[in-house]
Write a structure and sequence with these properties.
Largest sheet of chain B: 8 strands, mixed
Shape of chain A: globular
Shape of chain B: globular
Radius of gyration of chain B: 21 Å
Largest sheet of chain A: 5 strands, parallel
Helix content of chain B: 25-40%
Number of domains of chain B: 1
Number of helices of chain A: 12
CATH class of chain B: Alpha Beta
CATH architecture of chain B: Alpha-Beta Barrel
Number of strands of chain A: 9
Strand content of chain B: 15-25%
Oligomer: heterodimer
Strand order of the largest sheet of chain A: 7-6-5-8-9
Strand content of chain A: 5-15%
Structural class of chain A: alpha/beta
Number of strands of chain B: 19
CATH topology of chain B: TIM Barrel
Number of helices of chain B: 12
Largest interface: A-B, 28 and 20 residues
Helix content of chain A: 25-40%
Distance between the termini of chain A: 40 Å
């Protein structure tokens, strides 16, 4: 078995491919670095840019469309003064038959320093990481249903921001866990950071078999799964799942698993509500909850920039020292 | 050509013979074991001291990639690889391009194979035209052209009525049907066992019921028709248990497993190694243990290589997009020896899964060492260690889960039809006399 492909020999972050198998030390370092970026921008509102990645070329390689995630990475990179190139591969070389690794080899030859990769297949960023030159780092921006580590990290940042710590938290992840890379990254991060009770709440058709082996408690009813939790992490339900053999209708899903003010009352009174976006209002979440007092959904977006800045700066070797100056 | 093979440890799994003996070969046949026949004057002497002499291996699934898929591998390369692996008879599935659904294609393949060095090639005919699962092929004609059995390879057979009719028709001519059990709906778009690794990686699953539901359907139709069915490449504990009970009930069925499934499990796919992307998928360690138990108790009749050469372009992809399959014909023997060592199975018994047992399923005169039998022999050094690497594999397929790992046991000579088809360079030269 090879060593952890995400770490250097001396234990620093080499690539960010998945939160599975990363030590708590690294996750905490990323969150702390993100906190320092947020502190800087809070002190000096006019200074949005830091020069940590000046002269570095960062390639956003998206084999699957996502304006949102791509934009947050782009903003994060620009705040670090990096040069950003956006590539939407669907529209270019793949349709001409170029292989994934050929595309990557070509981009490497353009003096890239970092690849941010989104791909529809699990493990795509692992494959790329195995083949890049030693000076290039890879960030997984979502691979199939497998992992979305920066989303998982920004969710951890948000939880820590509002709840202070993980060791006394009870967290419920609600919705389409089966198809969700976000849920998988959240589960790995929460269990690594010492959260004692991670729950998943969903119908059986939207849970992987053996999901309890990931270290979660399985619930099928909101009335049981939400009871006394400190945070509710909602998942997006893809349009194509709303009717068919997994779910009969969006209406029935909303009735049983949609987060309404009534259902939220089962959670602790100070529970927070999170969602990775984009939301389907009236399907997985009621507008009164999404826009309500307990929702921290817009904070997640803000923290997402800082967390991605933290990951990029750590990968570039600039790290927390630079951010603290 | 008369060959005298000296001082080898002769293992004939069918008779249980395991002793140091000389073997005498003439005119394509074994003419003596132990004592030479009268007036035997060898043209060639092979010193087999330290080597095991066993019947040439019979491999029930080797993809030769001809016709149509020559960019993957060629008949010549894969037949040579098979001989390097000690295989002297092989069955090739019909999923070529075009599929083996017409007598002319089968005759052409047999003709080409016959005029090349390498093992005896037994094409498996397509059960349905173009493997589409709709219309039956001309099974009787294909049988005359050389097809020993009929199969859908990995193509789905959605219509159960067609399956019933195919069994009835095959039974009319007493032709065997080979089926890899997988429900076309339950396994749809799946790439991995529905277990802990697929849950972690979010890979589309092929659940165990995809296999058991299909086995259940097949067994019910076998009861109905009495057709002779061979179940190919079982992968699950539950599936093997169903076969165990069906055999106990006296149904005319046999089954095999792929050699990789004897050793590997879903855990080997945890780092997205596309070389471990196999069909059927590598399942849980519990399923793997059930395969070993099924071999030990005789529920499983044969081990095959399920040889599938895949080029780098089709493997250097994310796991779920990579083409399934592993090169295997050269690993069949060492991996079976590895299982025998680990499971404490006597060598003569273990070799039975590669010789007379698959020969009986295929219905050919092979897999025995006895006077009067065809001189198809495998001479291997059971202790020779070697590393699996692209340059150490003769197959054009270098796609192996075992790349970089050590094997124990290596073929030194392969005799086919009474002549030396393969001799490993560097082995002791025979001393004439």
């Amino acid at each position: 078995m090879s060593a952890n492909p995400q770490l250097t020999e001396d234990g620093r972050l080499r690539h960010l491919l998945t939160l599975e198998g990363l030590p708590a030390r690294i996750l905490t370092q990323i969150l702390d670095t993100a906190a320092s970026f947020i502190a800087v921008s809070a002190q000096e509102r006019d200074v949005k840019k830091v020069p940590l990645l000046r002269g570095k070329a960062i390639f956003n390689i998206f084999f699957e469309n996502s304006t949102r995630t791509r934009t947050t990475f782009e903003i994060a990179a620009k705040r670090l003064s990096a040069d950003v190139v956006n590539l939407n591969i669907n529209a270019s070389s793949q349709s001409k038959g170029e292989t994934l690794l050929d595309t990557v080899a070509n981009l490497s030859a353009m003096q890239a320093d970092m690849f941010i990769v989104r791909h529809a297949a699990a493990g795509a960023s692992h494959l790329i990481a195995r083949h890049v030159a030693p000076h290039i780092s890879v960030i997984n921006a979502g691979d199939g249903r497998c992992a979305h580590p920066t989303q998982g990290l920004l969710d951890m940042y948000t939880l820590r921001h509002y709840k202070g710590a993980f060791h006394n938290l009870r967290v419920a992840i609600v919705g389409d866990v089966l198809h969700s890379r976000v849920a998988r990254s959240q589960i790995h991060a929460l269990t690594t950071l010492g959260c004692p009770e991670v729950r998943v709440v969903a119908p059986r058709t939207l849970l992987p078999r053996d999901v309890q082996n990931l270290g979660v408690h399985v619930f099928h009813k909101m009335s049981e799964g939400l009871r006394d939790v400190d945070a509710v992490l909602m998942l997006r339900l893809q349009n194509e799942r709303m009717r068919g053999s997994r779910l009969p209708s969006a209406g029935e899903y909303y009735k049983h698993w949609g987060l309404t003010p009534d259902k939220l009352k089962l959670a602790r009174p100070d529970a927070i509500v999170m969602h990775p976006g984009p939301m389907n209002r009236g399907v997985e979440i009621d507008s009164a909850v999404a826009d309500g007092m307990q929702s921290v959904i817009l904070s997640q977006v803000t923290f997402g920039i800082a967390v991605r800045m933290a990951v990029m700066s750590l990968l570039a070797g600039a790290g927390a020292t630079g951010a603290q100056t | 050509m008369k060959i005298h093979i000296r001082n080898g440890r002769v293992i004939d799994p069918a008779s249980g013979l395991d002793a140091v003996r000389d073997v005498f070969v003439a005119a394509g046949h074994i003419v003596g074991v132990g004592a030479a026949p009268a007036d035997f004057h060898a043209n060639q002497v092979i010193d087999a001291g330290g080597l095991v002499i066993c019947p040439g291996l019979v491999d029930l699934s080797v993809r030769l990639r001809e016709p149509g898929l020559e960019y993957r591998a060629t008949l010549e390369s894969e037949m040579h690889a098979a001989a390097v692996g000690g295989v002297t008879s092989l069955a090739c599935p019909p999923d070529t391009d075009p599929p083996l659904d017409e007598p002319g294609l089968v005759e052409m393949l047999k003709f080409r194979a016959k005029h090349m060095p390498g093992p005896r090639v037994y094409p498996i005919g397509a059960l349905t035209r173009e493997l589409k699962g709709e219309r039956l092929t001309e099974m009787a004609e294909l049988n005359e052209a050389g097809c020993m059995a009929f199969s859908q390879a990995d193509a789905p057979l959605v219509d159960t009525q067609v399956l019933l009719r195919a069994m009835e028709y095959a039974k009319t001519f007493e032709l065997p049907i080979w089926l890899r059990p997988q429900d076309p709906h339950l396994g749809r778009e799946g790439v991995a066992h529905d277990g802990v690794v697929a849950a972690r990686h979010g890979l589309p699953p092929i659940p165990v019921p995809a296999e058991t539901v299909a086995i259940s359907t097949i067994l019910l139709l076998v009861r109905e028709t009495g057709a002779r069915v061979h179940l190919a490449r079982l992968s699950s504990r539950a599936g093997i248990e169903m076969v165990r009970r069906a055999k106990h009930d006296g149904l005319p069925i046999t089954c095999d497993v792929g050699v990789h499934h004897v050793h590997l499990s879903e855990m080997d796919t945890a780092n997205f190694d596309a070389n471990c992307h196999l069909i059927p998928p590598l399942r849980s360690q519990r399923d793997r243990d059930a395969i070993r138990k099924g071999l030990a108790d005789g529920t499983i009749d044969a081990i095959c290589s399920d040889h599938a050469p895949v080029d780098d372009d089709a493997k250097e992809l994310p796991f779920q997009e990579a083409e399934p399959g592993a090169t295997g014909v050269e690993l069949l023997l060492p991996l079976t020896l590895k299982w025998a060592r680990e499971a404490d199975i006597p060598l003569a018994r273990a070799l039975g899964y590669l010789t007379h047992q698959p020969a009986r399923i295929l219905g050919v005169d092979a897999g025995h060492i006895a006077a009067g039998r065809p001189a198809d022999l495998c001479l291997f050094d059971p202790d020779a260690a070697w590393i699996v690497s692209p340059s150490n594999l003769a197959s054009l397929g270098k796609n192996s889960p075992y790349l970089g790992l050590e094997m124990q046991g290596r073929v030194q000579y392969t005799l086919i039809d009474g002549h030396v088809d393969f001799r490993r360079d560097g082995h002791r030269q025979p001393n004439h006399g």
